[in-house]
Amino acid sequence: MTRKTVRIAMNGVTGRMGYRQHLVRSILAIREQGGLDLGDGTVLWPEPVLVGRREHVLKAMAEKHGIEHWSTDLDAVLADDTIDIYFDSQVTSAREDAIRKAIAAGKHIYTEKPTATGLDGALELARLAQAAGIKHGVVQDKLFLPGLLKLKRLIDGGFFGKILSIRGEFGYWVFEGDWQEAQRPSWNYRSQDGGGIVVDMFPHWEYVLHELFGRVTTVQALTATHIPERWDEQSKPYDATADDAAYGIFQLEGGAIAQINSSWTVRVNRDELVEFQVDGTEGSAVAGLRNCRVQHRSSTPKPVWNPDLAATHSFRDQWQEVPDNQADGFDNGFKVQWELFLRHVFLDEPYHWDLLAGARGVQLAELGLKSSAEGTRLDVPEISL
Ligand SMILES: NC(=O)c1ccc[n+]([C@@H]2O[C@H](COP(=O)([O-])OP(=O)(O)OC[C@H]3O[C@@H](n4cnc5c(N)ncnc54)[C@H](O)[C@@H]3O)[C@@H](O)[C@H]2O)c1
């Protein structure tokens, strides 16, 4: 086996996503498993270079995990020819400029979503990347969740017949920050800092709907800022200017209708933090992050509406769990997508979760906000480079 080092500049690793999912659960996890076996006698060995604004935090993180290199100078890191890939999990508002520089420096790009704060910027990044001939990928982690993988298996196996509708319920209570610390960063609740649940979640809904059920052709959304005042990381009150809930309806190519509630102001009375119910002519399924249960038409009970009688059975018990059927279990979705991206870079394997796919997510968020502001249903035009 030959070991090939791949140097990855990781910008934004001090953040929630950058640290936990990308550094620890993906890149360091690949190192712990001995690298990524490319199957051609080569093992890829990822070497992260931590990039950020606060030197002492980067240094402490590097020491904790035995990482040799870190820097607060992004330009210097990008000028380093030994760096192969630029990864970005900074706050959304800082992303576009940094990726632009990294493309100009000839690095391959892997990035969190949303790729930019507007469609024009997102498309421009995709065009620049194509012109530069670099490889590029955008995180679309939900596709690699066990629950959604099981749902995809059901679709591929023809379980549903004709798919009629999808109901998504996403959300949980994010504390305001006064009497209990908020569990999400405060910039998420300020639109001037790139926050808002539409910008955060519609990019996810775009690729989930598109890949599983059909391209989104129209969007109609109503957003709300239910909690107008919150408390930040320094316990200071601030005006929450961004939407903290969005109620969206999406028409899909092929005729299915999706309705997805996204909310940081809802208390969970579900099995998982996100659940999608899919109803088809032959059967229905409810998929969450990890689990998926089904009800076939042959075992569908016949409820009769009668409010005078108490329900005699539990409707939930009439569903059947979809098995994992995966001997070694499901790996972390972020890591799975990183591995596919590294194979794309080094083996040229196909990879369609790219900056153009990322731009579709930004487009849906932009149109969702416009739809809410105008009180209209909007077409979602197909975009291309
Ligand atoms: N794929 C997913 O499921 C998922 C989930 C949550 C967030 N995200 C995305 O990941 C990105 C980071 O989100 P997060 O929740 O980790 O945020 P976070 O606030 O925890 O981290 C932000 C990172 O950006 C850095 N940063 C750079 N410039 C900054 C600036 N001007 N102000 C503040 N911080 C700055 C911070 O130091 C930190 O490392 C966002 O773009 C978000 O949309 C993706």
Label the structural class: alpha/beta
Q: In what order do the strands lie side by side in the largest sheet?
A: 17-16-15-14-8-13-12-9-18
Distance between the termini: 40 Å
Here the CATH topology of the largest domain equals: Dihydrodipicolinate Reductase, domain 2
**Mean pLDDT figure:** 97
Number of strands: 18
The CATH homologous superfamily of the largest domain: Dihydrodipicolinate Reductase, domain 2
| Overall number of structural domains | 2
Tell me the major beta sheet: 9 strands, mixed
The share of residues in extended strands comes to 15-25%
Apparent shape: globular
Tell me the number of helical segments per DSSP (H or I, 4 or more residues long). Answer: 9
Estimated helix fraction: 25-40%
Descriptive report:
InterPro entries: Gfo/Idh/MocA-like_OxRdtase_N, GFO_IDH_MocA-like_dom, NAD(P)-bd_dom_sf. Helices cover 31% and strands 25% of the residues. The protein has 385 residues and is an alpha/beta fold. It folds into two domains: 2-140 and 332-349, Rossmann fold (3-Layer(aba) Sandwich), CATH 3.40.50.720; 142-331 and 363-378, Dihydrodipicolinate Reductase, domain 2 (2-Layer Sandwich). Strands 17-16-15-14-8-13-12-9-18 form a nine-stranded mixed sheet. Strands 1, 2, 3, 4, 5, 6 and 7 form a seven-stranded mixed sheet that branches. The protein has a two-stranded antiparallel ribbon with strand order 10-11. Helix 5 links the parallel strand 6 (108-111) and strand 7. Helix 1 crosses helix 8, helix 4 (95-104) packs parallel to helix 5 (119-132) and helix 7 (197-212) crosses helix 9 (355-374). The chain is globular. The model has no long low-confidence stretch (mean pLDDT 97). The chain binds nicotinamide-adenine-dinucleotide. The site of nicotinamide-adenine-dinucleotide (NAD) has 19 residues, from helix 1.
